[in-house]
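Summary for the funding panel

The consortium committed to producing paired sequence-structure records for every protein in the target list. Below we show the first two records in order, beginning with the earlier of the two.
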Amino acid sequence: MIMESIKYMILGMGIVYIFLYLMVVVLDWQHKLLLKYFPESFEDSPKEQTPTTSKRDKLKKVAAITAALHHMKNS
């Protein structure tokens, strides 16, 4: 009975491993295909469009995290 359960465990893990391997291969193939036919979709966006966070916003985040930790610690 133990040997049968080990056999099914190895079979199940093998099937999962094969599925994950095939998924990686298909996604890699899809990425190459998309780069070949739609290269403009994967270009880096210009730097001026990235959102910038100010020092004030960063301090607000730190204050919120500190307040949450203090609240959790004292609850």
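The next record, for a separate protein in the list, is shown here:
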Amino acid sequence: MLSYVVIGICVILLLAVIFISAKPISMGIEARREIKENSSLPDNKITEDQNLSDDLDQNKNITDEIIKLNRLREEGVLSSEEFEKAKKKILD
């Protein structure tokens, strides 16, 4: 009798896990379908998105470098003239 109770509890737990995981699994399948559909976009669209991402990364790096230079100028490590030269070199 005890074994039937244990088996019953296991079956109930298994059904609960299946029920709870059904929605995330279906969401994953849907996401995979969308990726396949989007991968059929023209190559130039993907390239444009990658170029935009690269440009944003490069702008962020330039901004970070100028901020570092400004900090050095404020600390007195660089003179204003050296700061302007370095900034001009970064921006070119």
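Regarding this second record: The chain has a mean pLDDT of 81. The longest helix spans residues 2-38.
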